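pinging the channel bc i need a second pair of eyes. not urgent but kinda urgent?? the chain im working w is below, pasted from the shared doc
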Amino acid sequence: MTDFRIIFSKKGSLAFISHLDLTHTFIRALKRAGIPLKYSEGFNPRPKMAFGLPLSVGTEGENEILDLSLSRDLSCEELKEKLQGSLSDEIQIKSVSEPGKKIKNIKYAVYRVTVSEDNGPEITSRKSALPERFEFESGTLCGTAYTYDSAYATTGETVGMCGGFEHDGDGISLDFTVPESGDYELAIVYGKANDGPSP
């Protein structure tokens, strides 16, 4: 088998490296392990590998996805053993298998947010229940991010989409107050519309 899907966790200090640095970390680990990566053709060949939804800097990952292709057959067990031996303990290979659906078909991720207690006046005076949905287009735009009306925005109360996430610093900031400290499950759903303005 030459096509693989790797599920891994990323914790500790490695939560603070960028997605680009994480990509370079895996490429170097694969090379150190002697794993024969398959490369694209052309003047600037690149390893045939693709990650799932990138994590924000400072976020740990429990079940991150990496799809990659090799230039020769290798068993799942051999790939897992060789790759784990070349990685930091803060990255753990949880499973290696044959890919199922294409990685581009991943449409959402589930995040767990831990909120520490704050006894400040703003927190203790606001105990309202959390809304069930946060619309990103209602947040604060950062960098060159923008919002626009879209025929594809069929969910939520706000008819709009967000775009313009092309450079470092582009994004949307959301602030909210929780009723009390504890663990909260946050599901982020996104889609790719083709009717937005060109950046």
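so The longest helix spans residues 19-32. and The beta strands are 3-10, 49-51, 61-69, 91-97, 108-115, 140-142, 146-148, 161-163, 171-173, 182-189. — does that match what u expected or am i reading it wrong
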